[in-house]
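agent> step 3/5: call structure_predict on target 'OPT oligopeptide transporter protein-domain-containing protein' (Phyllosticta capitalensis).
agent> reason: downstream docking stage needs a structural representation; sequence fetched in step 2, passing through unchanged.
tool.input:
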Amino acid sequence: METDKEISATPEVNTDQTKSQTEAPSGPKLQDEEHAYNEKAAHEIHLTGSDTDSSYDVRKENHFGEAVVVSDAKELVTHVLHVDDDPSLSPWTFRALFIGSGLAIFSAVLQTIYYFKPQTIYVSVIFLTVIAYIIGEAMALLPRCGRVGHFLNPSPFNSKEHAFIVVMASAGATSAVATEILAAQRLYYDESPSPGAAVFLVISSQLLGYGIAGLMREVLVQPTKMLWPINIPVNSVFEALHRDRSETWKRLRVFLIVFFVMFFYEIIPEWMFPLLQGISIFCLANQNSLVFTNLFGGSQGNEGLGFLSVSFDWQYIASLGSPLWVPLYTLTNSCIGYLLCICLYMGLYYMNAWRAKDVPFMSQLLFDPSSNFTNYVEYNLTTILNSDNTINDTAVVDAGIPYMTASYISYLITTNMGITAALVHMVLWNYDDIKYGWSFLKPSALKKVLNPSWWKFWQGGETQEEHKQRILADPAMDPHYKLMMQNGYREVPQWWYAGVLVAAFVIGIITLYGVKSTLPWWGYIISNIFAAIFILFFGAQMGLTGFQFNQQPVLQMLAGYMHPGRPLANMYFTTFGYNGVSQGQWLLRDLKLAQLAHLSPRSTFTAQMLGTIIGAIFDYIMMETIVDNQFDVLTSVEGSNIWSGQNVQQYNTLALAWSMAEHLFSVGARYQWVTISYLVGFVVPVPFWLLYKKTKIRFFEYINLSIILWYMGWLFVGVNSSILSYFALGFFAQFYLRKYRPQYFVRWNYLVSAALDGGTQVIVFILSFAVFGGSGKARDFPIWAGNNGGLAQNKNVDYCMYNPANGS
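tool.output (status=ok):
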């Protein structure tokens, strides 16, 4: 182990790369003053072996590969990742910009296509990392002859270029919720906003969250505590691919072996042997019981709870993120919530709560009051709309108040409780981690704002040197970020993100009226205020625990009461509230990824902004193309095996339901607990906090009721047969390996996690076009015992009893 420490105690310098960069221009004029600044710092470090401006050397905190039981975030990022850097490597090359732009377009188009598929698949960062590396290495083979050759291929493909490309492509891959609403307007409200207004709306809705989150990055990204554990596998791959081969060959070999084994293996459960997606011994033993289907079934969407099913399909096991990187604290709380979810759903259904047995066990649609156990009747939404697409209360009363499934109502209740419980939990347990997010409200800060000279932002504020010294002196800051500051990387001024926020806000409020949103200006402002609050609290929660909360239900509820009878206003309010939070969290995630990859803050900012704008434009273009060509299929209930409008349908249905909140969710209405739970959640975490303060028993500190409550509604939709495998693998890695085999955990856990994800996602992408109909025609594998044909044969894949009344 000492050898590893000695090797990584000083920056690694690739002499071939340095030579090639001094012989030829390193790319287009994007590198300007920042690259010159970094080159100077790099030259000093190469000569002296340390930063000449500081006696503190962050690289002494490098403990890569040491076999210790990792107990906190700092030990994780200094033992799993190298704390060293080569500042001479430049991301400012034409190659990085070209590949990043291409992959941003590709990922945006692909994500939009999959949004309109029967089964939504998300373009992952690991997938983009692998593709970017292949293309980057291919371009590095171009001859360096003449100025054109050096321009296209200035040096060997390096880790900074790779990180720049991945961040840019990841920003493009984030599907814009605004396109969902624009599609709904086309499909259900016969409105088609002008392309210019629509594009600006999509861009502004994306960048608003980025501006808010960027201003909070010192609280939500730069501290060590803000681990963002989802990034550790990706950064492990960066190191395995780009560090010196003599040091990383074994790690790279393991990554490639696992990657290709999973690449070929996934063909079996995905296409040839789908029974492996979820094997239920109970359903195989009893194939004629709907009770067994509800409890043990789960290999198909909305089939059942998947209790005790075993999955051998990594795509489904890691559908919400690989269990190998989820912290033990999060795993434990989510497992408790999962078990309670099964009890809750089964209890509500078989107690016939809210006429649960007269509607499907699991569904997200609205149902007519005439529905019964043998005949589920969807609610006819067109009969309750006025000509201006508002709700007609008289028509609602005449048609009857719609019903929803007990599982879906339960999900809304526990999610609303969990959201407000999360706010209180963060204040009680993590106040010191989030309080600086509101430092601008201090009297001293407000006084500075009122100073007549405050607008001269280019003259005031903290200098780069002051910022550097403050960060190096702060023990709470991430060693990787300290290393970047020590090596001379220049931080992005706050006014850059403030400018993005202001510009996006102004564009958004103008275009709202151009697209006939029906959302008033004050509703738009309130939605952005909620986005800012939620980014701070839930961004901190995701950074600390790796757990992401879905805030959409509570925002739709608030919109329903603020804009009653106006479903379009509800959807637009949710776009700027929920999409703002989602975008902000993805920006924060990628900022942490870039920080751990030692990508300079200014190049990260450039990559994210360019990727977001490119992605938003192509999101809209692709959405328009699909809606134009598949209008009838997207508005049909069942869709086709290639295209489906289920996501837009669900979003529109929820907006309509919340627009009828007075009839459905208000106090005294049928589903009043959906609203009351919002208030109950404020109280839920308090007893455990008081008990811990009184007794100091660790159990009360370990329980996070906001996570438990969210997972109590986890199983309301989708494929649930993989949950047991998810927890089994998660506890094996985060408890057994981390505690009893730390040498394997530190060196291999996150790398193997990335390889499993990468191999799976690449082959799923290929299969989607080769055999699943993405190219126009599906090619089904022949029917046999391991592939019974599924819904096409009116069967469930796992042989649980099929219920023809609801298609499951």
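agent> step 4/5: record observation. Residues 1-54, 452-459 have pLDDT under 50 and may be disordered.
agent> proceeding.
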